[in-house]
Every structure is written in structure tokens, then in C-alpha cells.
Amino acid sequence: MDRGRSAAGRHHGRVRQRLRSRGGFGIFRRALAAHIDIELDQMHGFGGRTAWDSVSSPLRHLLEHPDDSGQLEAWQVKELAPAVRTAVTSLAQHDPEGFMWTDASSNGRAAQELIALSELCAAEGLPVVFR
Fold this sequence. Notes:
The chain is mainly α and about 130 residues long.
């Protein structure tokens, strides 16, 4: 295994553990969706009927993906990485519960690690694997 893949693997484990520790990934997913004016409950896969192909944001790749299996392909990660950074920065500054996305909170640290993982995988042309 090359250095990039092992670094990405170690980083992924930390992100997964932190975001899952308190249902954090679900909270994170809903915050990202709200950031781009999507009500997840209306989307296919979340009980709704709205198709994901109606969403133009690169955040779609993360939002519509199961959090416990499969992977985001390298091209998806390349699109996703800057969009996640922008969204988390905006959430930390403007969301009424923005504190939870700052580096001072566990969700914020996990979000920052997801950003770093996405950027690392995008730079190395690697997928992000969900387990």
C-alpha cells in the first residue's frame, strides 16, 4: 500500500469514528443539505420522491451516498472537496448552531478531518471508502 493510501485510510478511520460517535454524520448530512436548501426528507432514499439528479451541487455526492458502504469515486471526491470546505466554513460562521462546526467541537473537528481526507484523496486521485 502506498503512502497516500495508508494516510487516507488512517484519516478515514478517525473521521468515521468521530462522526458516528453521536449520530454526528446524520446531523452533518442534514446541515449540509440545509446549507444548499435541500430538505432531506423530500429526497429519494430519505423517504421522499425528489430525485438526486435535480441537485446540481457537488455536495450531492456525499448527501445521497450511504454512510456505511461503497465509495465515492475519485472524480466525485475532486468535485466534493472544495464544496465541503466552503459549506463547513459557512456553517461555522452563519448557522444558528454554527458552534458545532468550529474546531472547538467534536463535530467540527470531524468535519475538518473529512475536508482534509477529501482534499488528500482528491489530490492523490483516490476514492473515499465508506464502511
